[in-house]
Amino acid sequence: MAHWLVIVCCLSIAFSTSFGQYICPDGWNLMPGGRHQCIQVFVANVTWSGARMACETQASRLAIVRNAFENAFIQHEMSLQNFGDMWLGGITATPAPGDVNDWFWEDGTTDFQSYMNWDSGQPDAYEDCGPNYLEACLEMRSNGKWDDNCCAYHDGYVKGYACSMDAEQS
């Protein structure tokens, strides 16, 4: 079993690809915590929809972040791939500067506001992504902070995506 070390706010926590009775497929890492989620980060220059479809082909979904520990875990997984920003599973139907109330997770859950890690000044719905489109998809920056971005970006800004699936009981 592979082992890694994660340092979160001066606390070192060792983890492996399985905890107790839960396991993940090869290449996936079990995220510590009670949700029993397997995470894999992919390096690919794709749109948010392309990332979502790629996760679905793996019987997974774009990663959903419920707390600071999960955010740090996913950021750590991203840092191992040594690339910039990546897509997560957050989206909004009504992008507006500073409006966090209309964001939701792509699996339909609406508890997005229970934990958020927006970078300073985000979401800003700043960029014009084409006729009648603004920044409406969630990306994680390399610093672990969140940004709203154009869902159709695949021009080098967003370098990857994180997928998650339920771990299997052994």
TrEMBL record:
**Record flagged with keyword Signal:** yes
What InterPro entries does the database record attribute to this sequence?
C-type_lectin-like, C-type_lectin-like/link_sf, C-type_lectin/snaclec_domain, CTDL_fold
Q: Does the keyword Cell membrane apply?
A: no
Q: Where is the signal peptide?
A: 1-20
Q: Which domain of life is it from?
A: Eukaryota
Q: Which residues form the C-type lectin domain?
A: 34-158
CDD domains annotated for this entry?
CLECT (cd00037)
Chain segments annotated as transmembrane: none
What Pfam families does the database record attribute to this sequence?
Lectin_C
Q: What is this protein called?
A: C-type lectin domain-containing protein
Keywords on this record? Answer: Signal
